[in-house]
């Protein structure tokens, strides 16, 4: 021992960037807004569109924000091995990443972004170990509550459930390769652009 700290081995060599970036973080932290802005600025990035069994919110479009499907269709996708990962989120609805579009984008050499929850991120960690994992975190707990209540898209019961999940998810930030504090959308997007090597 020479007293120097032992650093963990980097998972990818310097200069070799991961094609797949997983972005996760608690409810209402602003993942959707940040990823939407990233997509506008860099249309070359493939942003996966998830399937979900939840109902669309006002303004959400099928095939743009999600593919809105029913339970039977979701079951079929699981059986056909059509999902890269999937999870029941907030104890309620199922969400999953269609496998084929991601594989096609990787094969075409496009950077890929998956915006998924913690359970999904953990699955991708084992199926795509060379992916990089980014956790978006709010500046403070109060700010997270403020953003969730302020967007007004969930009932008080749903808000309570989402905040309960959020508490557990914040603890898991340490499992990620990078933690980015989402104070201001443009700054967060700049940080992501640099992490994606764009
Ligand atoms: P929301 O209902 O607010 O659109 O999303 C709820 C949660 O589901 C968010 O944390 C979001 O990251 C997560 N989510 C969205 N798509 C997927 C997916 O394909 N897989 C997993 N595991 N989580 C997802």
Question: Which helices and strands, and how do they pair?
Answer:
Elements: E1 20-24, H1 31-41, E2 46-47, E3 51-52, E4 67-68, H2 71-79, E5 83-89, E6 93-98, H3 99-107, E7 112-115, H4 118-127, E8 132-137, H5 141-151, H6 156-171, E9 178-181, H7 185-195
Parallel strand pairs: 1-7, 1-8, 2-7, 3-4, 8-9
Antiparallel strand pairs: 3-6, 5-6
Bound molecules: guanosine-5'-monophosphate (5GP).
Beta-strand percent range: 15-25%
Distinct compounds present = guanosine-5'-monophosphate
CATH topology: Rossmann fold
Average pLDDT, rounded to a whole number, is 91
Structural Rg: 17 Å
**Shape annotation:** globular
Give the biggest sheet.
5 strands, parallel
CATH superfamily: P-loop containing nucleotide triphosphate hydrolases
Write the CATH architecture name: 3-Layer(aba) Sandwich
| Sheet with most strands: strand arrangement | 2-7-1-8-9
Class, according to the CATH hierarchy? Answer: Alpha Beta
The tally of strands reads: 9
- Structural domain tally: 1
Separate helix tally: 7
Helix- and strand-based class? alpha/beta
Poorly predicted runs are: 1-15
N-end to C-end Cα span? 40 Å
Roughly how much helix do the residues carry, as a percent range?
25-40%
Order of H and E elements:
EHEEEHEEHEHEHHEH
């Amino acid at each position: 021992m020479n007293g120097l700290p032992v650093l963990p081995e980097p998972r990818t060599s310097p200069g070799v960037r991961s094609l797949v970036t997983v972005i996760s973080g608690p409810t209402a932290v602003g993942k959707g807004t940040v990823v939407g802005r990233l997509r506008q600025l860099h249309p070359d990035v493939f942003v996966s569109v998830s399937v979900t069994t939840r109902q669309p919110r006002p303004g959400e479009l099928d095939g743009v924000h999600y593919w809105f499907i029913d339970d039977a269709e979701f079951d079929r996708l699981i059986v056909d091995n059509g999902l890269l990962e999937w999870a029941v989120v907030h104890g309620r609805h199922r969400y999953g990443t269609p496998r084929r579009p991601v594989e096609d984008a990787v094969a075409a050499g496009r950077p890929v972004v998956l915006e998924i929850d913690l359970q999904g991120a953990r699955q991708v960690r084992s199926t795509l170990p060379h992916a990089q994992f980014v956790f978006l975190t709010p500046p403070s707990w109060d700010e997270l509550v403020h953003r969730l209540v302020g967007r007004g898209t969930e009932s008080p019961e749903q808000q309570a459930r989402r905040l309960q999940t959020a508490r557990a998810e914040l603890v898991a930030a340490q499992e990620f390769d990078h933690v980015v504090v989402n104070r201001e959308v443009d700054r967060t997007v700049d940080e992501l652009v640099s992490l994606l090597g764009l």
